[in-house]
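User: What would this chain look like folded?
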Amino acid sequence: MTCMLKRSHSGCCQEEMANRLFRAVIMGPPGSGKGTISDRIAQSFGLQHLSSGDFLRENIAANTEAGVLAKSYIDKGLLVPDHVMTRLLLPRLEEMTRHSWVLDGFPRTLAQANALNSVCKLDVVVSLNVPFETLKERLSHRWVHPASGRVYNMEFNPPRVQGVDDISGEPLVKSDDDKPEAVVARLRHYKDNAKPVIDLYKAKGILHTFSGTETDKIWPYISSLLSAKVRP
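Assistant: Here's the prediction, encoded as structure tokens.
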């Protein structure tokens, strides 16, 4: 099950190739470890890691039409609406018809999930279920490099030099979204929006939920699941 391919003179070859492709989505609230898990999946199974946050930053930096529109919401402290996020993501996914990938950070809402379903068929959706107190603790120790989106945790993934990005040497910042007063609202918003998405993928029979407080302990179970599903 993969992104749908347009028929062409090489349609048969494309369909045979498509049968060997694999598409996965990683869902989870802020601080659940989506990026870390996605990186491990990409490295372990040869998938390309696609991040909605990276796409967003790239479009803003390039001043694309969708990027400028997204930035107008972000500058006002608003969430980027569904129709803007789909304009950012779907064209890139439509370019990936020959690639296996793992996507994190999208979809976040039912509207985004339906839009994704219009261009791709997913093989697996992994939902990370991490206790609320653990998420609050992780986010309280999180610092980011704004330009790249690189995330550090002072407890288990600190930068080599405190307060400085490993790659660029630029200062790290504490995101307003990770401050205590914002965390509860972010987690509640995720829960409310994620439920219908989770229900959708559960009904499709592709949802797999993993619960725990430590990424290193959740990972072996995710790896075992994918080992049985990803074709070499």
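The two ends are 15 Å apart (CA to CA). If you want, I can go into more detail on any region.
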